[in-house]
Specification:
Blueprint: H1 2-14, H2 22-35, E1 42-44, H3 48-54, H4 61-71, E2 78-80, H5 81-89, H6 98-112, E3 119-121, H7 122-132, H8 138-148, E4 155-157, H9 158-165
Helix pairs in contact: 1-5, 2-5, 6-9
Protein name: EF-hand domain-containing protein
Domain EF-hand: 23-58, 59-94, 100-135, 136-169
GO molecular function: calcium ion binding
């Protein structure tokens, strides 16, 4: 119960403007915890540039100074997770709406499933992957196909297609 209350309090501190999913918040929490080595609930501003770089965003010294001035609200040289999440949300892309993504991928799947069989033979799917990445080495392509067709059916249905194209596990 206390953890749920803590989470709700944290969400209020972060604010609704962050527009981060639960998965994205978990990733940010994990990243924050890696750098909060003393487990004091705050991280040094000195490592913000490193964290942003890990998130795929390089900032120059001037940009970093502006960010630090804006987010070091109490001039301690450290920020708590809620402030860190607000900061990181500026650099993290919002996740696509799952239902919309599923709809778009269904349309793509149907374009390739011309006979409306509900599946694609693996050789056809292999051609799709080859179109997406013509530089993909043949052995890597074969490994992907083997992984996708774990049941050995020789086909890929929409759910398998969705997992592959949406980056599912």
């Amino acid at each position: 119960m206390a953890e749920a209350e803590s989470s709700t309090t944290e969400e209020r501190k972060i604010g609704p403007e962050t527009k981060l999913s639960k998965d994205q918040m978990k990733i940010l929490r994990d990243a924050f915890n890696v750098f909060d080595t003393e487990r004091k609930g705050a991280i040094s501003l000195d490592i913000i540039g490193t964290i942003l770089e890990l998130l795929g965003h390089e900032v120059n010294e001037d940009e970093l100074d502006e960010i630090l001035d804006e987010y070091d609200e109490d001039d301690t040289g450290e920020i708590e997770f809620a402030v860190f999440a607000r900061l990181a949300s500026r650099f993290v892309e919002p996740e696509e709406d799952y239902d919309e993504l599923r709809k778009e991928l269904r349309e793509v799947f149907m374009l390739y499933d011309k006979e409306a069989r509900g599946y694609l033979p693996l050789d056809e799917f292999k051609k799709i992957l080859r179109e997406i990445d013509p530089e993909l080495p043949e052995d890597e392509l074969d490994e992907m196909i083997d992984e996708i067709d774990a049941d050995g059916s020789g086909t890929i249905d929409f759910d398998e297609f969705m997992d592959v194209m949406a980056g599912g596990d």
